[in-house]
Structure formats: C-alpha cells, structure tokens
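Ligand-bound model needed. hypoxanthine.
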Amino acid sequence: MTKLAIIGGTGLDEMPDLEITHREVCHTPFGQPSAALTHGRMSDREVVFLPRHGASHMIPPHLVNYRANLWALRHLGVETVLGVAAVGGITSEMGPSRIIIPDQIIDYTFGRDHTIYDTDLSHITHIDFTQPYCENLRQELIEAGRLCGVNPIDTATYGATQGPRLESAAEIVRMERDGCDIVGMTGMPEAALARELNLCYASCSVVSNWAAGKVETSINMKDIEKNLIHGMDQVKSLLVTLLRLRAH
Ligand code: HPA
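Prediction:
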C-alpha cells in the first residue's frame, strides 16, 4: 500500500490518533506549505499530516499555498492524499454533520495559483479531469465509512467558492441549479493540482451548516463549531478504519 497523506481542514488542525515520529519543514519551488509536515503512524500505517490552514489556523482558504502543499507531499513520496474539508449543505440529504465523499466538482474560485504548469512553457499539459477524484480512494473511504457506522453519502457534486465570505442565498440557488450538492472553499485547486502531480486524491467533506438561504436563521459560528465537532469525530473513526483496512 502507498503512503497516505491527510490534509486537515477546519476542525481538523491536528490528528489526536497519530503517533508522531517527526516534523519536517519543506521548501518547494512554489514557496512553503501551510505548515511543517507531521510524520507518524496510525493503525500501524505510515501517515503524513498537513493542516491546510496552518498549525494555528491562520491561513484563509483563498491564501492557502495549494501548490506548495501538494508538491511537498509528492516529493516526500506520498502517492495518496485525502483532503478533509468543512462544507455547507445545499441539497436535502446534505444535513449538518453528514460525511460526504463527493464524486464531482464545479470550480467557482478565481485568482488562485491553480496549476503547476505555468513556469516551464515549453510544453502545455492538459490533464484529464473528467473524474476529478481518485475512484480507488473514494471506494476505500466509502467502505471504511460503512464498516464503522458513519454511512457516508457516496455521490455528490462539490461547488468550490472563493471565500472567505459565505455565499448569498441567490448564489446558492444558482449553484443548486448548476448541480452542486455541497459548497466549500478549499476543494479547488487542491483536487486539480493533485491530478497534475499524479496523486490519487479524494475528499472527505463534513457538513458544518446548511448553505445560505436553506434555513430561516442566519449561519452562525457557534452552530458550525458544534456540527464540526460531531462531524470530525466521525471522520476520525472513518480514518482509523480506513488505515486498518489498508494495513491488510
Ligand atoms: N459555504 C462555503 N464554504 C463553507 C460553508 C458554506 O456554507 N460551510 C463550510 N465551508
């Protein structure tokens, strides 16, 4: 089995189940990753952990150095990357604290460094992105989720917005019309860069709130945090099960 990296999002800035062996500061042609990479073992498997928003959660979604993060992981010999992310729920099944393993993406972000192919222009590389997530990893996550009782939703379209503000109700209506089931701010360009670097990448999304306009009340941070605590507990047990399955 290949070495797994976990990119933690809001609510998962550290991995309590990881027995840490060492931390590694990396420099890449694109600058520095969000934090030192944490190496360790979980369920007897080697894991690398990287908090997307920095060790003390200071980097907003639009300023994450996605290129440095993915490049650093690739150059450490990682082949499989799981991006954990908090999202808003748009369609009816995507309620707070649900775990979603999306299978499609629509990108609404702008102005982000979204490719590694903008320095050497001697050849243009158009990656195939028909299926934006690695199906093998998606199936492993779905199986692990079922085994540990989390029952993730196994098909959904992730709409990636620019942030850091949340959306207007009309933007969510438009996203739903486009086919989005969930909305988050970090899914792109992370997934596309992973594909450019030939990494097997999938997302484990945790619903922290109903998206704008889906409920009468305004979105508040207290409810988001409460839903995320429950959601991330489920993610942690899913991850332990995933790694146990990978150990065989
Ligand atoms: N919108 C965008 N990103 C998010 C949301 C949301 O409602 N919730 C968590 N991340």
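Residues 4-112+130-246 form a domain with the Rossmann fold fold (CATH 3.40.50.1580).
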